[in-house]
Design goal:
Number of domains: 1
Distance between the termini: 6 Å
Number of helices: 17
Radius of gyration: 19 Å
CATH class: Alpha Beta
Strand order of the largest sheet: 1-2-3-4-5-6-7-8
CATH architecture: Alpha-Beta Barrel
Low-confidence stretches: none
CATH superfamily: Metal-dependent hydrolases
Bound molecules: adenine, zinc ion
Helix content: 40-55%
Largest sheet: 8 strands, parallel
Order of helices and strands: HEHHHHEHHEHEHEHEHEHHEHHHH
Structural class: alpha/beta
Mean pLDDT: 98
Strand content: 5-15%
CATH topology: TIM Barrel
Length: about 350
Amino acid sequence: MSTTTIQDFISALPKAELHLHIEGTFEPELMFEIAKRNKKEIKYKSIEEVKAAYDFNNLQDFLNIYYQGAGVLIEEQDFYDMTWAYLEKVHSQNVIHTEIFYDPQTHTDRGIKFSTVVQGISGALKDAEAKWGMSSKLIMCFLRHLDEEAAMSTLAEALDHKDLIAAVGLDSSEEGHPPSKFQKVFELARQEGFLTVAHAGEEGPAEYVWEALNLLQVSRVDHGNRSLEDEKLVQELIDRQMPLTVCPLSNLKLKVVSDLKQHPLREMLEKGLLATINSDDPAYFGGYLNENYLAISEALSLSKKEITQLAKNSFTASFLDSETKQLMINKIEQYSQENS
Ligand code: ADE
Ligand code: ZN
């Protein structure tokens, strides 16, 4: 019997992250540094004042502050530096594969070139692969509070950078903006060879999860918490082994759950859903991947076996090829046997 604590077990466990907004990794310290070199005003006087503003009642409260923060990013180097800071952080947490969202429209609507953003982020991803062998995929999200025509223009711009973008996603304000609003642009994206994912069932109803599955033909559902309100949907997700990218600290901070002890993760696992653990917007929600694993493990008293299953799920649900997935899963199994 190993004496490895749950915390140490999680720290050294090889993991993949599948739900991470790169603009949500922008720490206030780096935000101030980049604002200064770009001569951009920040409405807060100090890092402490910024952090004090991170007290949200819902998704929209958070998004208002998150879009403001991203407004200081101008040069390719800024996007590189923000991405590199995240990669260094999660490399230290034994994340060996990461699939990153970014929101091009948040930047192109401010006059930043599409290529500036994608090249800055991709440059850091490439360097992490060269330096540590950390693999990654990039997922371009459409902002669902904007219209489908704007998403179409964004997709057209992405076609010149197809080699850098694996999938398209859907994020931002969920309620009132159902997946069906983006059916045509997702169809075009699939025709162009992009995989698809979508945020659904975070604040929005189970019906939005059905739409993500049937109309957008997603490979994963981001969040998906409210799927549990619909028994037929749960069965469908199990039958398809459709991954849910669950984000515990995000759910707590955005009041999707009132207490982590009430979090539906255990119920998801017991029902046979392919749930994974992720950090969403770690600079805003108080923790990167390991902090999410630890917080939910403590709240729900997860065993090492259950934590191991979550890490395996993260590779099963990834966009890696099946051979690499199996290699990673074997690695996790071996680690778990040596440390349980
Ligand atoms: N953009 C960044 N984080 C998000 C979240 N949790 N839900 C929807 N859009 C987002
Ligand atoms: Zn998200």
